[in-house]
Design brief:
Length: 157
Amino acid sequence: MGGVLSQLAQLFIQTIPTVIFVFVVYVILSRFLFGPLTAVMKKREEATTGAMAHAREQATAAEEKARQYENAFQAARQEVYRQREADRRATLKDREATLKRAQQQSEALLGEAQASLAAEVARSKEELRATCQSLGQEIAETILGGAAIGGGGGVRP
């Protein structure tokens, strides 16, 4: 058993330079290769994560702006509808007032025309009465005048 231990000791002593070499290579690689590589990867991850977070923030801000725009657009649309309705009501009111004025004017004209017609009828009746009386007198004079000529003495009114 002593021979196996001495062989193991011999083998251990022979592996010391390899272990030291591997340790030195590990230190050199970690300092000059893995350290900078890890730092670059860490910066890249931070930049990616930061860009993603920034993109999320911008997307959220854009959605909020879109919501605000939509709300403002909806409010403007409602205001336009309210204004149209107010204009429509005002137009209807003006129209009703105009129709009422036109109706009053037409009633006034009709009243004037009826009054004028009534006056014309009254004048015509007076003229007709006067004409009837003068015709009646003429007829009476003619009849009575012929009797007076023919029979003597008619009475004149």
